[in-house]
Amino acid sequence: MGSVARGDIALPRRFMTAPLFAIRPTTADDVPAMASIEALAFSDPWPATSFHELLAHPFSRMATAVDDSGGIIGYCIMLQAADEAEIANIATAPGIRRRGVGARLLDDAIAAGTEAGVASMFLEVRESNAAARALYSSRGFVAVGRRRGYYRRPLEDALVLRRDVTAFE
């Protein structure tokens, strides 16, 4: 990995390409951009109506990553019931992947869940999605089950991952 000189220090190139962005609560105005990212990110995407419906429910927490020009570059949806939460959906725009946006969205959801008293977080991930599995593993998620044939287009098993929040306190 190369580096780029900045003043009198040399920074790794990965620090030069990270986008500037903020994470904020999702609004109804964000849904069209989220649905576009969803369609590009997943072979069996959620419809825009699903995002709108979740915005109205108190058990859902939706966060949006917005770049410095106001563009939507990612989102994360967490559902909470009692002391458990599920990361129901997380995605980043294709040109932004592997630059820290998904990690920050996940960290934000973990922090919000912890603050809300969540003891365990769950999510499903395609068994073949090595990049997502590595991210989840780096945040303490471990495989606890398998849902056979869970994903369509193409048909594939989902791994059920869990992160026990209390294990990190």
Record the SSE blueprint.
Blueprint lengths: L2 E4 L2 E4 H5 L3 E5 L5 H11 L6 H8 L4 E8 L4 E10 L2 E9 L8 H15 L4 E7 L3 H9 L3 E10 L4 E9 L5
Parallel strand pairs: 6-7
Antiparallel strand pairs: 1-2, 3-4, 4-5, 5-6, 7-9, 8-9
Describe this entry's structure for a reader.
- With 169 residues, the chain is α+β, with helices and mostly antiparallel strands.
- The chain has a single domain (19-168), classed as Gcn5-related N-acetyltransferase (GNAT) (Aminopeptidase).
- The chain is 28% helix and 39% strand.
- It is built from five helices and nine strands, in the order E-E-H-E-H-H-E-E-E-H-E-H-E-E.
- It has helices spanning 13-17, 31-41, 48-55, 101-115, 130-138; strands at residues 3-6, 9-12, 21-25, 60-67, 72-81, 84-92, 120-126, 142-151, 156-164.
- Strand 8 and strand 9 form a beta hairpin.
- It starts with a strand and ends in a 5-residue tail after the last strand.
- The model is unreliable at 1-16 (pLDDT under 50).
Which key terms come to mind for this protein?
169 residues; alpha+beta; Aminopeptidase; seven-stranded mixed sheet; two-stranded antiparallel ribbon; 9 strands; 28% helix
Q: In angstroms, what is the radius of gyration?
A: 17 Å
| CATH architectural designation | 3-Layer(aba) Sandwich
Q: Which structural class best describes the helix and strand composition?
A: alpha+beta
What overall geometry do the principal axes of the alpha carbons give?
globular
Record the strand order, biggest sheet.
Answer: 3-4-5-6-7-9-8
Contiguous helical run count: 5
Mean pLDDT comes to 88
| Number of E strands | 9
| Share of helix, binned | 25-40%
Number of domains: 1
SSE series:
EEHEHHEEEHEHEE
Query: What is CATH's topology name?
Result: Aminopeptidase
Distance between the termini: 35 Å
CATH superfamily caption = Gcn5-related N-acetyltransferase (GNAT)
**Major sheet: size, sense and barrel closure?**
7 strands, mixed
Q: Beta-strand percentage?
A: 35-45%
The parts where pLDDT drops under 50 for at least 5 residues are 1-16
CATH class label? Alpha Beta
GO molecular function, one term: N-acetyltransferase activity
Pfam family, one: Acetyltransf_1
GO cellular component, one term: ribosome
Keywords: Acyltransferase, Ribonucleoprotein, Ribosomal protein, Transferase
